[in-house]
Amino acid sequence: MVHEWALAESIVNYLSLELPGKKAEKVVIGLGRLQSIEQDILDFALRELLVQADIHVEEITYVIIEPKLRCRACGYEWKILPEELNEEIAEMIHFVPEAIHSFLTCPRCGSRDFEIEEGRGITIVEVIK
Amino acid sequence: MSIDPREYSIQMKLKDISTFIPVMSYKGGVGKTTISTLLSLCLADVGYSVSLLDLDFTNPCVHRMLGIDVKKLMPKEEKGIFPVEIENIGVMSIAFFTKDNPTPLRGAELNDVFKELLSITAWGKLDFLILDMPPGLSDVSLDVLKYFKRDLYPLIVSSSSRLAIVPTINLFKLMKELKLSPIGVVINGGIGTMSIYREVAETYLREGLEVIGSIEKDEKLEEVIGSPMELRRTLAYASIKKVCFRALSTTKKVAL
């Protein structure tokens, strides 16, 4: 099991601490595409861990968020898809998305001083109790 | 609503670690990485379970001290990632993912790297986690103080230089304000000049800082960077043994 398990653990740890009664109607997870999280693996890990933590969630849904980058030096905004990247670089970004600064520069001015505005990694978008 | 769940895992991942030693200085270039690495080797040699985390995300160097080729090695993955084992030390560094490329990061990005690494690294049961800190008390150092809430014993590093005196005293004061118990100050005689070592040490004593050791100037040290076996044969390693036993005493692992 790859490191999606650790990311699923974070979600379950949040629900364990913040969900009264350990029951929710729906949990919406945001998946930033930059990190190339395998949704099936994350979902499998999440369901296993929820059972172990005795938390009941009726429905888990995922919202895919496309990555958007913005250069702080020149203001240029651009989109990037992990599948467009070299496989090794995509793997590094999978573990630590900020590694993108090691491999990419702004297409317009060449600066590495850019920010990931959207689509970085995992977030909990909504919990309906 | 948008919640970052990683924060909820950090404490869980650290729960089986007995003692955290951040190796800190207010000033850069005083030898934190050298001391972090030698202290880790020494504690491991004495028989303790030790991991070393490089928190200097924009300039990680621990892997170079230990001769780890980050272009070839990657942490193993199994329900998270495992520190890379070398010389009985587990090593975790952003360098495994940045591959020694330049990586400029601003505050929010440093915070993200911190949370990512700390929420996915499986440390296991450890006696010590040594933290090689970036200089100063900014983003990452503040994150350490935020998330490492127990058994935190900073080790403060100073060079043998007049420029280091005020920053070191200020760092010590800040540690005390935060109700932390620093192990003490180590003066790195390899940086600066030994001729004013006494002046530096006496000033610290006057200000209530405890100097627990010094690292002797060692011309050979530079030549053996990257070779843990050779690092153990340096004067610097011999010097760190006193610091190591003091760390063990302060953190109540052994009585001196």
Short key terms for the protein model shown above:
heterodimer; A: 129 residues; alpha+beta; hypothetical protein PF0899 fold; three-stranded mixed beta sheet; three-stranded antiparallel beta sheet; 30% strand; elongated; B: 256 residues; alpha/beta; eight-stranded mixed beta sheet
Concise synopsis of the structure shown:
With 129 residues, chain A is of the alpha+beta class. Chain A is 33% helix and 30% strand. Chain A folds into two domains: 2-66 and 119-128, 2-Layer Sandwich (hypothetical protein PF0899 fold), CATH 3.30.2320.50; 68-118, no CATH class.
Describe the structure.
The complex is a heterodimer of chains A (129) and B (256). Chain A is of the alpha+beta class and 129 residues long. Chain A folds into two domains: 2-66 and 119-128, hypothetical protein PF0899 fold, CATH 3.30.2320; 68-118, no CATH class. Chain A has four helices and six strands. Chain A has helices spanning 4-18, 39-52, 87-95, 100-103, and strands spanning 23-32, 56-65, 68-71, 77-79, 114-118, 122-128. The radius of gyration of chain A is 17 Å and the shape is elongated. Chain A starts with a helix and ends with a strand. The model of chain A has no long low-confidence stretch (mean pLDDT 95). Chain B is α/β, with parallel strands linked by helices. Helices cover 41% and strands 19% of the residues of chain B. An eight-stranded mixed β-sheet of chain B has the order 3-4-2-5-1-6-7-8, with helices on both faces. In chain B, helix 2 packs across helix 11 and helix 7 (162-177) packs parallel to helix 8. Chain B starts with 6 loop residues before the first helix and ends in a 6-residue tail after the last helix. The mean pLDDT of chain B is 93.
